[in-house]
Amino acid sequence: MPNFRLTIATLCVATVATSFTPPVQAATSDTVMFIHGFLGWGRDEVFGIKYWGGVGQDFEADIRGDGINAVTVAVGPVSSNWDRAVEAYYQMTGGCVDYGQAHASKHGHARWGRCYDALHAQWDSGHKVNIISHSQGGQTARTLVQLLKEGSAEERAASGAQVADLYKGGKDWVRSVTTLSTPHQGTTLTKGVYTFTFDMAEQLMGVLAAVAGSSTLSSDIYDFKLDQWGLARAPGESFRDYLARLRNSPVLQPGHTKDLSAWDLSPEGALELNGWVKTHPDVYYFSLSTASTMRGFITGNHYPIPSSAAVLAPGALWMGSYRNLWPAPGQVRIDDNWLRNDAVVNTVSMKAPHGATVVAFNQASPRKGVWNDLGLWDGWDHMDIVGQTWMFNFIDLRSPRDWYRDHARFLRQLN
Known about the structure:
CATH architecture: 3-Layer(aba) Sandwich
Shape: globular
Strand order of the largest sheet: 2-1-5-6-7-11-10
Oligomer: single chain
Number of domains: 1
Helix content: 25-40%
Largest sheet: 7 strands, parallel
Order of helices and strands: HEHEHEHEEHHEHHHHEEEHEEH
CATH topology: Rossmann fold
CATH class: Alpha Beta
Radius of gyration: 20 Å
CATH superfamily: Alpha/Beta hydrolase fold, catalytic domain
């Protein structure tokens, strides 16, 4: 979805970036683990355009070039955080995905998923990871940490001695979680038209296809990874035919299941998720917020700033005007505090989960077990922060590419 900012960013080769002064601690050999957000993709999809970097950039490769091991998982782009977290675990450790007998039975999908070679076969308490996550990826990261640490009593009861190792818990394998533009308390975008999910996917893929120089959407451009629901892409099936089949699937209709992103990303679903996914006292948590709307003087609503990516404008307009001041039982009250957004997520939702302690980030002495607030990148939309539009902000002089490298170096110093 590049716009005029692409040209600006290309010309700005001398970037003045925010830099971290690492705390005085011994460097570790931790691996950086990237978890993408809603509608995200893997390194081999979308014509090779990297989710983490965009056209012509590759943040994982940048970090590797600095001598820090980094890997990227590719989980279900519209799946629930449980399913995504389990997929991330098996992609890291290797093996065939076991969604859990209790979970699969409850939601009505297959217990077993795809099989993977290990991205990080040595992953354990002696070889920890620092997770960097975007959008829904932040919810997924917290769910993964929860399962690693405490497992699942329901799965242990359902499978007994045959329970998967993930659900046994007791794994102190994550040193830190960094979330970027994450809907910790949900996003009101989910209150819009449900089919916007797939409309947005098609628009996004179309724009990226055009950027890559292709006028057609090939069958291997994008994979929704919904095998557990019997919705695997057929050999040779075009993306448009695949998308049409997904649209018509009863599984993906509104209200059919809570085991998809549409529920987890809603304010009510996020509240439910935060009821069992904890902030753990021995893990560092960092959050960065974004906003790309401005308040209208007459209406009080929020509107996208001129430099926002056009493909995201409908979401920004919807979220900038949606309120639910008299919620029905079970609904979350949405007031004016929710109007500011980055075109996909409400900014008020990005700092931390419900009830969590938030502190201002102190680079010399970050704190465990609380949310270290990295601040707000104002004027940056949801996809700017992962480099998709190559935005360069002349007001605060920050570059996402440099920020990721600096942050990865900072995380390496944690102990």
